Amino acid sequence: NMFSMDLEKLQMTGAGRAIAVLTSGGDAQGMNAAVRAVTRMGIYMGAKVYLIYEGYQGLVDGGDKIKLAHWHSVTNIIQLGGTVIGSARCKAFTTREGRLAAAFNLVKKSITNLCVCGGDGSLTGANIFRGEWSSLLAELVKKGRITDTLAKQNDNLNIVGLVGSIDNDFCGTDMTIGADSALHRIMEIIDAIMTTAQSHQRTFVLEVMGRHCGYLALVSALASGADWLFIPEAPPHEGWEDLMCARLEGSRI
Q: Residue limits of the Phosphofructokinase domain (predicted)?
């Protein structure tokens, strides 16, 4: 029937293609689920899928840091926090030499589709890499490290960015990978310290992460019924100290 024919076509759309996936920057819960989804969908579509270990550092180092994945490479990871393929801050990738090494490692395996799961720095790096791709290949040909034919076969690098960040700070995404888990964790902490605060008639100040984005602070303040909130998007007005103290005193039983 038509459905099974379409399914067969779909399963062959990735035939002859190679995809690599890496996680970079700070780890965010949900990264493993993303790695698993990319790996299994890639295999399902008939593509070769490679896992890059230790983020961009693995891309620069190459060798056994870039491993061919099979269906079971990503079994039993969906429920784990962090990232099983590792992450690292990578100074080398910020240099032209580092990106040249990374391009060489990818071209050797004919990988021209890269899936990057990370935050602002990771995705900015991916965009620079994509923009430089043709000039990096030209330099590798000039240095005699790859053939002209190999460069022509792999002349275009496709990049997909998955926003792995607890901060929920990326325009165009409803919820970044890791934000929901961070919110759950914050609420657990608030529930735990609330009883202590009440027992001692204390007011606790809780600082949450979020970089330049107040999302986690705002939503956890709403969910926990906090009396006062500071977020970077709305700095407090002059004389806020007296106002805050009056509010906190008013909420005392």
A: 19-237
